[in-house]
Specification:
Strand content: 15-25%
CATH class of the largest domain: Alpha Beta
Distance between the termini: 58 Å
Radius of gyration: 25 Å
Structural class: alpha+beta
Largest sheet: 5 strands, mixed
Shape: elongated
Strand order of the largest sheet: 7-6-10-9-8
Helix content: 25-40%
Order of helices and strands: EEEEEHHEHHEHEEEHEHHHEEHEEEHHEE
Number of helices: 12
Number of strands: 18
CATH architecture of the largest domain: 3-Layer(aba) Sandwich
């Protein structure tokens, strides 16, 4: 069986049926009313194969492609042709947000992926599944790895209880943060609300979740209005950040009720990329789905921000999520960390994998947090002077 692979914006096919053909060979496809074939192009041989992976005689190839000169032009056109990958939210683009040509990879145990039929999702237009043996080779989920085809991957996110696979991406994955003086100056020039709130919390049960679902978002002030009529893109430009698309991110989502039932408040908003917002939406969707599957469960959400100058909590370098689900046999926990300046939004396949994964296992219970950490001294943040 041949299946599609998009590599460097070009459409290729690879063989998945075993036998003499290898998975790292690449082919182009040609079909006409006279028949169809696959031509190997990764080694320059241009050997031709049937849809069943059998080698084809030259006479058969000529019959399908026509004259030799014409056949050569057709094959070369297939090799050079660039593909514009168009994705719709229903078929490959969660919330319509991530770049058209983005490819991510997951690294984890095949056993964890069996129940979601990862083979059906893997190596499509937006996802690769890395060999689980890399976990043993690297003794962990490394920050960077090189796969068997010499592709270099950088870790976007470590495994979590709700997503037991590390996520990887090729190329840059996050932007550098401006210096604290620039952040403070922009905050003052834009008259942004002063924010010192370190922790944002929310408690949810089923009745509250149902009420939140009936709210008309248009009846609330917009994020821009809450942030003194400043758009996220305008603020990012003043900070000197590249134009990758910015939004005011909810630390606790509007659909989860926000900060103690107040979603549109400066304490609940931070500057971030659309990509980071998408990653957070996937976790927020998991929280709601988990509560729907477990009727007696309630959730306590605690979100913290780190690395912001005094009074400038609208800018942070990391958002840390801790969710405690109670009401079952024993409390279970979910942890996840987000970089608001991430340039990588998870693909639709990752969203689908999370939605289908039912083998949820709790993270360890959190350690107690001292008052000195909860209430840092003025001018200090988590023991580090800014």
């Amino acid at each position: 069986m041949f299946e599609k692979v998009i590599e460097e914006s070009r459409l290729r096919y690879r063989w998945t049926g075993g036998g003499l053909l290898r998975a790292d060979w690449r082919f182009v496809h040609y079909a006409s009313r006279r028949g169809e074939l696959y031509v190997r192009v990764d080694d320059g041989s241009w050997d031709s194969y049937s849809t069943l992976g059998a080698g084809l005689e030259e006479s058969t190839v000529r019959n399908i492609l026509g004259r030799a000169s014409t056949a050569e032009k057709i094959i070369q056109q297939r090799i050079d042709e660039k593909v514009a990958v168009k994705r719709q939210p229903s078929s490959g683009n969660p919330y319509g947000r991530f770049p058209e040509d983005q490819v991510m990879a997951v690294l984890g145990s095949y056993e964890d992926m069996e129940e979601i039929d990862f083979l059906a999702l893997s190596d499509g237009l937006g996802l690769r599944v890395l060999d689980e043996r890399f976990i043993e080779i690297y003794s962990s989920f490394p920050e960077e790895l090189v796969d068997e085809w010499d592709r270099q991957w950088k870790r976007v996110a470590s495994p979590t209880a709700f997503r037991p696979w590390a996520l990887y991406h090729q190329g840059d994955i996050a932007l550098g943060a401006p210096d604290p003086n620039t952040i403070t100056a922009v905050g003052k020039s834009c008259k942004l609300p002063e924010v010192n709130q370190l922790f944002v919390t929310q408690s949810l049960d089923h009745s509250k979740l149902n009420v939140i679902g009936t709210l008309n978002r248009k009846s609330f002030d917009s994020q821009n209005k809450v942030m003194k009529n400043n758009s996220a893109n305008e603020v990012a430009k003043l900070l000197g950040l590249p134009p990758v698309g910015y939004e005011w991110l909810h630390m606790v989502a509007f659909t989860l009720g926000g900060f103690e039932d107040v979603p549109q408040t400066p304490d609940n908003l931070v500057l971030g990329t659309a990509a980071a917002n998408t990653a957070m939406m996937i976790l927020e969707g998991f929280i709601k789905a988990y509560m729907r599957r477990h009727s007696g469960v309630s959730a306590r959400i605690s979100v913290s921000r780190t690395g912001f100058p005094p009074k400038q909590g609208w800018f942070t370098t990391q958002i840390n999520y801790l969710v405690q689900f109670s009401g079952g046999f024993k409390p279970v926990y979910v942890r996840e960390a987000f970089d608001p300046l991430s340039t990588v939004a998870p693909t639709y396949d990752v969203k689908q994998m999370v939605s289908k994964y039912s083998g949820f296992r709790s993270d360890p219970a959190p350690l107690p947090v001292s008052d000195t950490v909860r209430k840092p001294r003025p001018g200090w943040h988590l023991g580090r002077r800014l």
